[in-house]
Automatic annotation (TrEMBL):
PANTHER family hit by this protein: CYSTATIN FAMILY MEMBER, CYSTEINE PROTEINASE INHIBITOR 6
Domain of life: Eukaryota
Protein name as it appears in the record: Cysteine proteinase inhibitor
Residue ranges occupied by any Cystatin domain in the UniProt entry: 36-126
SUPFAM superfamilies reported in the protein's UniProt record: Cystatin/monellin (SSF54403)
Family statement: Belongs to the cystatin family. Phytocystatin subfamily.
Keyword Transmembrane helix: no
Keywords recorded for this protein, A-Z: Protease inhibitor, Thiol protease inhibitor
Keyword Translocase recorded: no
CDD domains for the chain: CY
Length: 195
């Protein structure tokens, strides 16, 4: 009887000690699985090819566009975490285009599939980790200097770049004048097409 109590005590100390080692992260060093705490957000594996995750990200962008009268365009999902709540709460890091610039956003989408419930809980701009160089984009840097430069007006690439710049300025002008929260409604852009 005493031996059974001692065995049970030693076994419980051994189990608690193993759990403590896992909690300190020693389990990762030993290539053992680390036990998850229920309710904590966890990384979602294999989301790159998931139609469900992409549709949630598109839903988040559409809802944000409706609520904020924005014109974001979804590009791709960068990272996903999921948390089991009354349903699932998805923490999405996604890339979207805002007025021609790629930016990262963080969104929280709450889903209850048994009731067809889907709600955007949060959508905010995230600091992007765009750690690439011009050489990653195939850009060859020459010593052209900075500032204004004379360009040949007959060159088709120069004309295309100028037309693109004019369209971009017109788009910014339209968004500025239709944005009810803009403080610069009295500003007017004058675009002179010198080509």
């Amino acid at each position: 009887m005493v031996m059974d109590r001692v065995s049970a005590l030693l076994l419980s100390v051994l189990v608690l000690g193993c759990g403590y080692c896992f909690d300190l992260g020693h389990g990762r060093q030993l290539n053992l699985l680390r036990m998850r705490i229920p309710g904590d957000p966890s990384d979602c594996k294999g989301f790159q090819n998931s139609v469900e995750i992409e549709s949630l990200a598109r839903f988040a962008v559409q809802e944000h566009n409706k609520k904020q009268n924005a014109l974001l365009e979804f590009v791709r999902v960068l990272k996903v975490k999921e948390q089991v709540v009354a349903g699932k709460l998805y923490y999405l890091t996604l890339e979207a285009i805002d007025v021609g610039h790629k930016k990262w956003y963080e969104a929280k989408v709450w889903v209850k599939p048994w009731t067809n419930f889907k709600q955007l809980e949060e959508f905010k701009h995230a600091e992007s980790d765009l750690s690439f160089t011009p050489s990653d984009l195939g850009v060859i840097q020459d010593d052209h200097g900075q500032g204004w430069q004379v360009m040949p007006t007959k060159d088709t690439e120069v004309r295309d770049a100028a037309n693109h710049a004019v369209k971009f300025i017109q788009l910014v002008t339209i968004r500025t004048h239709t944005d009810p929260y803009s403080k610069s409604q009295d500003w007017h852009f004058v675009v002179c097409k010198a080509l």
